[in-house]
Structure formats: C-alpha cells, structure tokens
Design a protein that fits this description.
about 160 residues; globular
Length: about 160
Amino acid sequence: MRRFCLLVATLLMIGAAPALAVGNGSTYIAHLEGDNEIPAVDSQGRGQVILEVERGGEAISYKLIASNIDDVVQAHIHLGGPDVNGPVVAFLFGPVTGVDNNGVLSRGTITASDLVGPLAGASLDDLLAEMKSGDAYVNVHTIANPGGEIRGQIR
C-alpha cells in the first residue's frame, strides 16, 4: 500500500509540474468589464482574454472575446495594477476605424518582437513576470471610450 501511495504521489507531482511552470503551457485569463476601467465606464460590454504560454516560453497565443460592444477600434495589453492606467506593451487588435463585436474579436500570437513601449526590446519573460505579478491588464478601446471601454487584470 505504501508503494502505491508513493507511486500515485509521484505521478501527481510529475503531471502537475508542467501546468504550474511559467513558460511551459501556463494559462492566464482576464475578465473585462466597464467597471474595471479607471475611471469606471457604464458599458454593457463584456469580454475575456485567454493567454496561453506556448511550450518553451517563446510565444503567447491569445484569444480575445468581446460581446455587446460597438465601434471597437483597438485592444492592448497594458502594464499597471488594478487602480492604474499604464502604457501599452502589446497590441491584440487594431487600430481600425471601428467594428461592432459580439464574439471572437481577435486571436494571434505575441513574441518578444511584438512588445512595444517600456517592454520594447525586452524578452517575453519580462511580460510574463508582469502578468504573473498581477501588474498587467487588457482593455478594449472604442470610439465612444478611446481610453478604454472594458478592462480586466490578467491573472
């Protein structure tokens, strides 16, 4: 019985290790809504971003979903805590002249060469460190709210 328990514990540790390691298949999510904007925005828009760190940590694939939102012009990852408006560090969508959206707004891959602003020239590990610490967020900008209509911290 002791061997069986040791075997099960070992298998669980081996199986769980890749999911916990940054740069080795980690997933980050942000839930976006107007109340999270600084200042808060009265919006029916909602969204979600799913960021998956590809094996090896050389890229982050993303899917940005937004609903009940009109005239979207762009979306970004920004640096900043929940109460801070910070600089853009990666583009997720746009810029465009404005599209109505109710579903997948964009999907793609971010690599170190896509980083801009204070992370331009940095490694993807620098962005991952900000995401892991809770100091990165996503927001979706619209014509009516150019500073951002819906926002969510990356967790």
